[in-house]
Design a protein that fits this description.
Elements lengths: L2 H5 L4 H7 L25 E2 L2 E2 L11 E5 L18 E8 L2 E6 L6 E5 L3 E3 L10 E3 L3 H9 L8 E5 L7 E7 L2 E9 L5 E2 L5 E2 L2 H10 L1 H4 L26 E9 L4 E7 L4 E7 L4 H15 L9 E5 L6 E5 L6 H6 L1 H4 L3 H20 L2 E2 L8 E3 L5 E3 L6 E2 L4 E3 L13 H6 L1 E3 H16 L11 H9 L12 H10 L10 H16 L6
Parallel strand pairs: 8-9
Antiparallel strand pairs: 1-2, 3-4, 3-7, 4-5, 5-6, 9-10, 10-11, 11-12, 12-13, 14-15, 15-16, 16-18, 17-18, 19-22, 20-21, 23-24
This protein binds 2',3'- cyclic AMP.
């Protein structure tokens, strides 16, 4: 916060900058590929510093169920009002929660059904739980409310922090409530409080400290989770620009007007043959929720073209990103961090016996701060056995495909692991085409003779060893995605804390 705003009421103009500072995770301490002097400034790219999170894990929070919730699928968790839960992570509109009493089961529960226990937030009329910024603005600007109306919601970017959204002079302002290392709540680091209730109480009685008076809690009904949120009228989406042509048709950037958010919309190509695939893709997407998988947000499946609405990833595909000037200057630490996220998303699919079958940089999407998510489940299938046999007519991306899958259509989680090795090669070589200059036939012959892609220049040896493990001729000898995730995570953590050099 600027000094001027600590001592007087902040002007609304600078409030955005000082009360709502841009949050940045600490930079990765530099591990220059040459092992040269390490200073955070060294990982500047042409667009400025790239921030990536510290590998430290967050403490687990205690939650309670606010209402009864009946699980509708194996992934969900039935809870009774008052059940004590620990929340492992936030996944879109859900939280992955674990019961702390009885059978200790875990599963997904709508985020609006739970509240942090120690503060008993649910008893406060101003607590709106897991609603986003756009929704908070719509609620507060509705006619039932007036200046001073406010609510508190879970932060969109940091699930253990909160945001006060308050209406003043017909506008809505947002104030981030941060947590100190001992768990205290504060808006300004000069004043912290033991509970969220005490913090709100203070600012209700000392409006000058915040700059915006906090009067009555927002008057709207607190919404419960919508059971069928997927289908939406297509008028809710405003198309802006075509991002490119995907496997199934065009992908557009759009605004979801009622939710006030940018989204990506995939449109179905009209040919009948592809429609079947498209429907399967949607079915797969609907049941999958993980921060490292592209999240399905909505569908317009009535009429044509069918829209599949997903979260928008600001930097597009990893393939395009690696080729961009920003991608070309990424350090090994950044690439390992990104690779670890992909392995995490794939481990989630592995647990559900879902085979992606087209894991490659073109199917990974990138957002700010190097966030990576696995996309395009166009070829994914939920398999009963550990091996899925594809029809011979399927077009196979040979360079990324394990020999047993390319030659005998034996696709499995382990053939995805092979592809992950090739994806790591794409990343560490900053976007090089695998087996450049070779035909698909030559690639298969080379692999059969025991040849493997060479280590990319500047690739740390331990990362190249992981690639070679992924390319073990015997599928069962390849590592699991869980193992890959933990290996990459620990290499990243060691780089972060400067104990090894790459
Ligand atoms: O490399 P790109 O910019 O990233 O071009 C391709 C194109 O659409 C065709 O697949 C981009 N794309 C696909 N899905 C998304 C998304 N969810 N967010 C942003 N860009 C996307 C992809």
């Amino acid at each position: 916060m600027e000094d001027c705003c600590r001592t007087c009421m902040p002007c609304l103009g600078c409030m955005w900058n000082c009360i709502w500072p841009e949050f940045h995770y600490p930079n990765v301490p530099i591990n220059d590929d040459t092992g040269a002097t390490r200073r955070p400034a060294d990982i500047r790219t042409i667009s400025g510093d790239i921030s990536v999170p510290s590998p430290k894990k967050r403490p687990v929070q205690l939650y309670a169920a606010l209402f009864d919730f009946e699980a509708r699928s194996e992934e969900e968790l039935t809870v009774k009002e008052g059940d004590k839960l620990s929340v492992i992570e936030k996944r879109g509109d859900y939280v992955l929660a674990k019961k702390l009493t009885g059978s200790l089961e875990s599963g997904l529960v709508p985020a609006n059904y739970v509240a942090i226990l120690q503060d008993e937030f649910a008893k406060h009329k101003w607590y709106y739980g897991n609603i986003n910024r756009g929704k908070a603005e719509t609620l507060l600007l509705a006619s039932q409310n007036q200046d001073g109306s406010f609510l508190v919601r879970i932060s969109e970017s940091h699930s253990d922090e909160y945001t006060i959204s308050a209406r003043s002079e017909g506008k809505v302002y947002h104030f981030r409530i941060q947590r100190s290392s001992i768990g205290a709540y504060f808006v300004s680091d000069k004043l912290s409080f033991g509970t969220l209730g005490e913090l709100i109480n203070y600012y209700q009685n000392n409006s000058r400290s915040l700059g915006v008076p906090l009067g009555l809690p927002c008057a709207q009904q607190r919404e419960l989770f919508d059971m069928e949120p997927w289908e939406r009228p297509r008028e809710e989406f405003q198309l802006h620009r075509k991002l490119g042509e995907g496997h199934f048709g065009a992908v557009w950037e759009a605004t979801w007007t009622t939710e006030h958010r940018k989204v990506a919309i995939k449109m179905l190509k009209q040919e009948d043959t592809k429609q079947d695939e498209f429907v399967k893709e949607v079915q797969a997407l609907k049941s999958l929720h993980h921060p490292k998988l592209i999240q399905l947000l909505a569908l317009c499946s009535r009429g044509e073209p069918v829209y599949i609405v997903t979260e928008l990833m600001s930097k597009g595909s990893l393939k395009a990103y690696l080729a961009s000037p920003e991608g070309q200057v990424l350090k090994s630490a950044h690439l390992i961090y990104m690779g670890s996220q992909v392995a995490e998303g794939m481990a989630y699919l592995e647990d559900r016996h879902i085979v992606h079958r087209d894991l490659a940089a073109r199917n990974i999407l990138v957002a700010e701060d190097l966030v990576c998510k696995v996309a395009d489940f166009g070829l994914a299938r939920i398999i009963k056995d550990s091996v899925y046999t594809a029809s011979r007519s399927t077009k196979i991306p040979v360079r990324w495909t394990a020999p047993e899958a390319a030659l005998h259509q034996r696709f499995s989680v382990k053939s995805d692991v092979w592809s992950f090795g090739v994806l790591l090669y794409e990343m560490m070589s900053r976007g090089k085409m695998p087996y450049d200059g070779k035909s698909n036939k030559e690639v298969l012959e080379l692999l059969a003779s025991g040849f493997r892609l060479p280590s990319p220049a500047r690739c740390p040896q331990n990362i190249y060893r992981i690639m070679l493990d992924c390319w073990a001729p015997e599928a069962l000898k390849r590592p699991s995605f869980h193992a890959l995730h933990s290996q990459l995570d620990s290499i990243y953590a060691r780089i972060y804390f400067k104990t090894i050099e790459v």
